[in-house]
Amino acid sequence: MSLFIGVDSGTQSVKGLVLDMDERRVVARASAPHALIAGLPARHVEQHPQTWIAALDHVIRKVASKIERSRVRGIGVSGQQHGFVPLDARGEVIRPAKLWCDTSTVRESEWLNRRLGGRKAVIRRIGLPFLPGYTAPKILWLKRHEPQHYRRLRHVLLPHDYLNFHLTGRYSMECGDASGTALMDVRRRRWSQAAIGAIDENLMDWLPPLTKSHEAAGTLRPDLARQLRLPQGIVVSAGGGDNMMAAIGTGNVRPGVVTLSLGTSGTVFAFSPKPLIDGRGEVAAFCDSTGGWLPLVCTMNVTLVTEKFRRLFGWTHEMFEAAVAAAPAGAGGLELTPYFAGERTPDLPLATGSLHGLTLQTLERPYLARAAVEGVSKGLNYGLGRLSQLGLKPREIRLTGGGARSAVWRQIMADIFATPVVKIAEDECAALGAALQAAWCLGRRENARESIADYVRHVVRLDERTRCVPSKRRP
């Protein structure tokens, strides 16, 4: 009689669900929005962590109101990766969190790479280079630009760690999410003294203990349990970054599966039983949240781009999809380079977007819409190609995220990727993965040999109605 709450705190909202492990299905859902801080300079993207807490508590209360609360045995938290939450000695937030898509740290990234001998030397030492989106250059940015705040710094957390801290009162960081800080030796799953020392020798004291993926971050605080009207002693699992949790929620816990997430940004990732280091640094050699590794490629511009075009034309989602379908494959030669927010893969944080092939024919809304979808899909295909070069060739690609709902887009991806694609039945894969990890965490206490794959196999389902195979006449 076990229920598990999974929560995913993203850039735009917190989404939650309740997984009934006895019936192997989701029995409740809720969501709550939160906003970015408006009016910041270009390339600065920040949020108030307190808004995550308010949304988290609201979502937990909402889903709990729909179930038999006494049956809840665990909570798992997924969170947007790479964000920097600076806390003082009392655990109070010092300043707003800089997010994954904040690229104001280009100079800090370049300086850190040079400090450790250059990009290739950094990859040899810790497994991946310093990139503007990662956490490490954000810490150095604070030291350089806001010394009055840096002097107060005593705890460094990621967004999902801060939510775990709120739930449990304990500081911890799980290896999967921690590997996206660029402060960790991803091969050995431990903090890198070299990377940390390049910023500040004291920083090692401000980082929390690393938690294994199957371990608990703690138990729900008694006072918070009373506020949320949940049982005392509920386990809060280690949790992880949103990509790590989405890997669990899409069944990507064994070799052979590739997940593609179509959100504001796009991520392509696969399971590996050993570290997969890309000498060029284009594939992030992250750890996953099951004890393995998660080679991952991130592009900054996916629904960020398609939604911009849709709103520009004043269309509904249905109108946008119809327009894309009406234009020919290849958009009549019109090509969009979709670097609206710079780009991470390839590493071009200061790049901008451009349109090529404009004619009297292609300067029409359907052609522009088609070029937008094909442009971001080609960007994702670049990442898929790099994974294939490193030996990870997918048999099928499992889709999640808002863009996966579009039938036209799914076919375009199958054609461009030359690989079958299929949508996961559950839309909120990261929240589902968080709930599954919480169930696994508790199950390991009773049987240390239990595998996360056993939990995934019984719960994760494909929506076969959405499967698309490459057409014979691909663009």
Main attributes?
single chain, seven-stranded mixed β-sheet, 22% strand, 475 residues, 36% helix, globular, Nucleotidyltransferase, domain 5, alpha/beta
Range of helix content: 25-40%
Q: Give the count of helical stretches.
A: 17
Oligomer: single chain
Biggest sheet record? 7 strands, mixed
Q: Can you tell me the CATH topology of the domain at 3-241?
A: Nucleotidyltransferase, domain 5
CATH C-level of the domain at 3-241: Alpha Beta
The count of strands amounts to 24
Query: Could you list the spans in which at least 5 consecutive residues all have pLDDT below 50?
Result: none
Give Rg in angstroms: 21 Å
CATH superfamily of the domain at 3-241: ATPase, nucleotide binding domain
Note down, in words, how this protein is organized.
It contains 17 helices and 24 strands. With 475 residues, it is an alpha/beta fold. The protein has a domain at 3-241: Nucleotidyltransferase, domain 5, CATH 3.30.420.40. The strands form seven sheets. Strands 1, 2, 3, 5, 13, 14 and 15 form a seven-stranded mixed sheet that branches. Strands 18-19-17-16-22-23-24 form a seven-stranded mixed sheet, with helices on both faces. Strands 4-7 form a two-stranded antiparallel ribbon. β10 and β11 form a beta hairpin. α11 packs across α16 (429-446). The relative contact order is 0.13.
Topology readout:
Layout (H helix, E strand, L loop, with lengths): L2 E7 L3 E8 L4 E9 L12 E2 L1 H16 L7 E8 L5 E3 L9 E2 L7 H10 L3 H8 L8 H11 L1 H4 L4 E3 L1 H10 L4 E2 H4 L5 E2 L4 E2 L1 H7 L3 H4 L3 E2 L4 E4 L2 H7 L6 E3 L2 E2 H8 L7 E6 L3 E5 L13 E4 L5 E7 L3 H11 L3 H10 L8 E3 L16 E3 L8 H25 L6 E5 L6 H11 L3 E4 L4 H18 L5 H8 L2 E7 L7
Parallel strand pairs: 1-5, 5-14, 5-15, 9-12, 16-22, 22-23
Antiparallel strand pairs: 1-2, 2-3, 4-7, 6-8, 10-11, 13-14, 16-17, 17-19, 18-19, 20-21, 23-24
Helix pairs in contact: 1-6, 2-4, 11-16, 12-14, 13-14, 14-15
